[in-house]
Amino acid sequence: HEAVQPKCLYKGESKAVLKATYDVSSFSFFQRSSCYFFLQGILIVECSAKDSQTSVEQEYLCYVFVRNDSLAEVVIADREHPSWESFTLLEKVLDEFSKQVHRIDWPVGSPYTIQYTGLDSHLSRHQNPQEADSMTKVNIILHNTMQSLLARGGKLNDLVSKSEVLGIQLKVFYKMARI
Description:
Blueprint: E1 4-11, E2 16-20, H1 29-32, H2 35-47, E3 52-57, E4 61-66, E5 71-77, H3 83-100, H4 118-126, H5 134-178
Antiparallel strand pairs: 1-2, 1-5, 3-4, 4-5
Helix pairs in contact: 3-4
């Protein structure tokens, strides 16, 4: 999986303002070009209601979470990155940010004045969901289990339908045999 790029924002009355980002100097041109998608993410934050989660699909996927307290998070991820993982990342980052940065700094601070470095560690951990923390690994296992259960459930539904058809055919055969 490639680009997972989290950014913290504060949703003000009229606009969303960047509060924390990470160093992109080591990123390739391709990864840096996703900044355009991040600008779209800011617009989505500005249009989103508080306490909402949104995802928008274009070349990349843009995941947005706006909390009731006006903190917002935007994650840009490639199509292969699981959506549930991105929303988990949104929640983790905002929880951590709100614990490390004083609430009075949210509306007025900037990436230069707010000392929050958690995005770098989250970025490196979530580039590949298989290498994420133990809770995420549990989520991955649960997700895979649910997918196989759903697949198995579909097969069971097929078997039930086929047995119902066979039951009907058996009744018709029985009636024909009695005649």
